[in-house]
Amino acid sequence: MVGFSLSAEQTDLVMSVREIVEKHVVPVALEMDTRGDDSFDWRFIKLLSDHQLLAPNIPREYGGRGLDFLSMAVLIEEISRGCAGLAACMVGEIHATIPIILGGNESQKELHLPVLAANPVLAAFGLTEPKGGSDVKKLSTTVNYKEDDVIINGTKDYIVNGAVSEFVTVCASTDVDQSRSSFRFVIVPRDQIEVSTVRNKMGIKYCNTAQLVFNKSNVPAINVIGAEGGGYLLLNQTLECGRALIAAIQVGIARAAYEMTLDFAQNHHQFEQPIFSNQGVSFPLVEMATIIDAARFMVWRACWLVDQGGDFTKATSMARLYASSVSHKVTSMAINIMGAIGYTTDNLINVYYRDAKVGSIVGGTDNVQRMIVASLL
Ligand SMILES: Cc1cc2nc3c(=O)[nH]c(=O)nc-3n(C[C@H](O)[C@H](O)[C@H](O)COP(=O)(O)OP(=O)(O)OC[C@H]3O[C@@H](n4cnc5c(N)ncnc54)[C@H](O)[C@@H]3O)c2cc1C
To answer: Is the full-model pTM beyond 0.85?
Structure first.
């Protein structure tokens, strides 16, 4: 059955998270951005952890909240509305847990999931390599068995939470010539990871994003996830459902920009009247509200399909593609309406504009989403 209302539980979740974000995140959102990429501020991770909002997908039997994707999307939209970088930390960690939840054995789940559910700690998802991220079949990071251990060699780049993670769920290959049939995910603890560079980004600056080097990293073989030959499927499952949450971040950014601009337009006066009274201003706001709604519904549909175990590949790529274009367009329109005030770096609208840009790159670029959808038309 099709429905457009959230359940009572989901509504409670939205209201409580909105209150937390309004009280603790919105007042310092500008500071979270200007502080930059190098100095990670754990206060907000603790805040989320205290309210059991970090890694909310971890099943209840491992100490988590066991939220479905639709609930996570509404939660992430709220957090992103306050600070997209903080939402990116969450989504990066969720990506790290998906291969474990879907493909891990019981002891891997018991060892690695409860620690994330109960503590203000982060995990990361390591796929992209310096030579390029679009062609995921061409991994050069290797994982080789050596008695009871595995040895990992390679470099991963632009990894969210990279330098501040308890562990990284790394995608590597047992035989680079065999490509996708040799993919394996390995849980690599922080003491086996070298952080070579913390990336300075134009947006989502709160979240740490790093280049990580695995130089003969030595990890027990029990940290290898899933059966031989199953790594590529696990990778695709992770990326496909993760895209819906990346799209939810974009909806949150667009909503933040729209709400701020509406308030501005209703209260800023020119020619002795609020600028909102001009259709040249109110009509763009109508368009902003309309396309944000459309993007949100696409995110909800994609998440609903994930939760139903339906065929969600096309829906999650479409949601990710559309939501990134919406956030980009809305934040740009917002600056047009706000005029010079919107162009100053000490205004949050400027932060939203920079944050939105990442939406067309992560989880596969816009062109990668187009390639996926085209293959399914
Ligand atoms: C802030 C941020 C956070 C990130 N977080 C993570 C993370 O946590 N974990 C992780 O593993 N990765 C992460 N990434 C990496 C991200 O997934 C990659 O940047 C993305 O997949 C694109 O790879 P690339 O940047 O190397 O671009 P490339 O693959 O080099 O592509 C460059 C350009 O060529 C285009 N292109 C490539 N091939 C084709 C084609 N066949 N047809 C048409 N166009 C094509 C692309 O669309 C793009 O415009 C992050 C990136 C950023 C910026």
So the answer is: yes
- Burial label for 39, CB within 10 Å (0-12, 13-18, 19+), is exposed
Atom of ligand 1 nearest to the CA of 203: 1
Q: In testing the pocket of ligand 1, which one of 37, 127, 135, 158 has its CB within 8 Å of the most ligand atoms?
A: 158
Ligand 1 pocket member 359 (CB < 6 A)? no
Q: Is 65 in the pocket of ligand 1 (CB under 6 A)?
A: no
* Cβ-Cβ contacts under 8 Å for 40 (sequence gap 6 or more): 163, 164, 208
Of ligand 1's listed atoms, the one at least distance from the Cα of 133 is 23
Q: Provide the mean pLDDT of the chain.
A: 95
* Residue pointed to by tokens 């974000």: 21
Using 50, 70 and 90 to split pLDDT, how confident is the model at 2? low
Cβ(241)–Cβ(68) below 8 Å: no
Q: Which CATH architecture has domain 124-228?
A: Beta Barrel (2.40)
Written as six digits, the tokens of 322 are: 């559309």
> Which atom of ligand 1 lies at the shortest distance from residue 131's CA?
26
* CB of 125 closer than 6 angstroms to any ligand 1 atom: yes
Residue labelled with tokens 């667009």:
254
DSSP-derived pairing of the beta strands 165-173 and 122-126: parallel
Average confidence (pLDDT) over 346-374: 96
- The pLDDT of residue 1 is above 50: no
The fold of 232-375 is Butyryl-CoA Dehydrogenase, subunit A; domain 3 (1.20.140)
Over residues 217-267, the pLDDT tens digits come to 999 999 999 988 899 999 999 999 999 999 999 999 999 999 999 999 999
